[in-house]
What does this fold into?
Amino acid sequence: MISNRFGLMATGLVMVSLSGLLVAQEGSPAKEKATEKKAESKSADDPVPPPPPPPRAVKKPSTTKEAPPKTQSTAVAIPNAAMAQLALFKIQIALGQNPEWDGVQISSVQFESEQDQVLLVVDGRLSEGRLRSKAQKVCESVLQEIFSSENGALPQPKLDSLKVIRPAPREAATIFDEGLQHYRKGNHEAASREITRAIVENPFNLGYKYWLVVVEVAAGHDDQARRLLRPLILRRTQATSTKQTDEYVEVQRRLESVQGVVRQKMNQLEEELLRESAPK
It folds into this structure.
């Protein structure tokens, strides 16, 4: 009897539990609908948040090196060829009028630029190494005379091309004789070339220099003859020793064979240059 009662009670509890479970399952859809409705009403009342901003693009570092900014180059004005010829003319005049500088032979000059500096590149030869400083001073003096300080920094002489070569008097005498033969045959161009070579090999022979003037006069090159004769006239007027005077007398004696029109032109050029060089 007791066992049947307990059995009925257990059966009742099981049925109550099952009914509660069914009620809970039936109530869950309604709860979900209420939640959705509440969410809908809340979303309708609240403002819609703005969309998130797009992600910022990250600039990747460049693998190529950027070129440095260009700097404006300072151009250096180089004097023209006419200025170079003027400088050469004045340098040769300055050297030719001083017998102590006969060992300095400047054959050509040209202006060049190097590291924003204008240079006067000098070419020629020296009979002795000690004469390089003399040539430097003469070139500097001529450049100061030609260029004023208003034009900026003065060009500087560059004498690296001047080679030291000892005079060769015997070879010069042979070359000079060949030049005289060309002159007597009327071949003035060849005569000028050979006598110029003789002067290069022995710049201390004053007679060679006067004979070169004779050849240029005979060829009708009056301007060239005047240019060559000018330093010789200045040397004569500035003579400070009897040796220089005796040297000129000996040259004139050797030129006695030059007569006629050539001699007349020589005398005329000498007189004109003497008047120009006379103190005023």
